Amino acid sequence: MFVVELALIGAAVALLPLGWILLRVRSDRYRKLAWLTMFLTLDLVMFGGFTRLTDSGLGCPDWPGCYASSSPFAAHASIAAAYAAMPSGPVSVMKAWIEMTHRYFAMAIGLLIVLMTAIAWIRRWRGQPLPASPWWPTALLALVLVQGAFGAWTVTLKLQPVIVTTHLLLGLGLLAALGLFAARMTPAPQREPAAGRGSVAALVALALLIVQIALGGWVSTNYAMLACTDFPTCNGQWVPPMDFAQGFHLWRALGLDTNGEVITQDALVAIHWTHRTFAIIVIAYLLGWAWRIRRVKTLTRLADGVLAVVVLQFLTGLSNIVLQWPLPVAVAHNGGAAILLLLVVMLNWRIASSRAAAASSAESSPVTA
């Protein structure tokens, strides 16, 4: 019964953005629904970071409900008993609400993607014009289902770092895919020949960023942000003692090593130091790449966005160390990574589509003797 109640809550949350589209938007509703769903997914990614950073991931230690109830209201007695037994544990009323709000939000986005998929296939069957292939929202729906499974495993496997990190990366992948889907349905600006150049450099930028985000996720899910307490050195050393084998062993419980013992400080330092060191490479590359391509008029705004967010990421990352990981700064750092990924993905799409358009134009041009 509580599963039906959960579905109704998710539907009620989904009706808010859907109602705004129906009441306020007069044309291109499907495209604007895709963009709105993308922005809501960005919000969800940031709220997921807030959930993780406030240690609320086990605020409700079962899934999909909270102590087999649809809300912390109904589960209040169980939450109170768990909190009384362990006041410093993972369960409290506030943490339960944070976790369930995250789940309600995720269900609402899933329902919006189900709706986009259904609309696309109905239009296909009726022979109506489609802004994009119905396989696009279908693929998004499949990704949502996989993401939901990892969300469940995040809880049932007690925040195992590799599961939580994968859950984070899948959420960012969904965000990027929604951005591409919305971009495909949006008329492109007038293309410049130069906009189609540098596709390899753009792909390298994307690959470096994905690796850095994965490393950042590994830092966060292992709670290794404060393993180095100074900057630019780490605990007073440029190359401190580190245990890479334990730090980057994927399949282990949170806070434990492969032998089931408490993970060492050297392992946490290895995680933090790797993320920090690789950040230098990524920052240098992204700044140089974005500065070069901003000279292309149709890429300038996106490139300027990359430059601004890279600087913001450096400042928030540094503040996390110097200010001992304040929650607003940590959430901003997570959100900055998501926004930066969106910008780099959009630039890759803009460059690839401009290159394809230029190639198509060259093939269709008449050959003169």
UniProtKB/TrEMBL annotation:
Compartments it resides in: Membrane
Transmembrane segments: 6-23, 35-53, 104-122, 134-156, 162-183, 195-215, 273-293, 305-325, 331-349
Membrane topology of this protein: Multi-pass membrane protein
GO CC annotation terms, alphabetical: membrane
Chief place of localization: membrane
GO molecular function: metal ion binding; oxidoreductase activity
InterPro entries in the record: COX15/CtaA_fam (IPR003780), COX15/CtaA_HemeA_synthase (IPR050450)
Species annotation: Mycetohabitans endofungorum
Pfam families per record: COX15-CtaA
Keywords tagged on the record: Cell membrane, Disulfide bond, Heme biosynthesis, Iron, Membrane, Metal-binding, Oxidoreductase, Transmembrane, Transmembrane helix
Single GO biological process annotation from the record: heme A biosynthetic process
Keyword presence, Ion transport: no
Pathway where this protein functions: Porphyrin-containing compound metabolism
Protein name: Cytochrome c oxidase assembly protein subunit 15
Acyltransferase keyword on record: no
Upper taxonomic lineage: Bacteria, Pseudomonadati, Pseudomonadota, Betaproteobacteria, Burkholderiales
